[in-house]
Amino acid sequence: MATAMYLEHYLDSIENLPCELQRNFQLMRELDQRTEDKKAEIDLLAAEYISTVKTLSPDQRVAHLQKIQSAYSKCKEYSDDKVQLAMQTYEMVDKHIRRLDADLARFEADLKDKMDGNDFDSPGGRGLKKGRGQKEKRGSRGRGRRTSEEDTPKKKKHKGGSEFADTILSVHPSDVLDMPVDPNEPTYCLCHQVSYGEMIGCDNPDCPIEWFHFACVDLTTKPKGKWSVWGAAGSLLRRPPPGRL
Question: InterPro entries attached here (predicted)?
Answer without folding.
Answer: ING_fam (IPR028651), ING_N_histone-binding (IPR024610), Znf_FYVE_PHD (IPR011011), Znf_RING/FYVE/PHD (IPR013083)
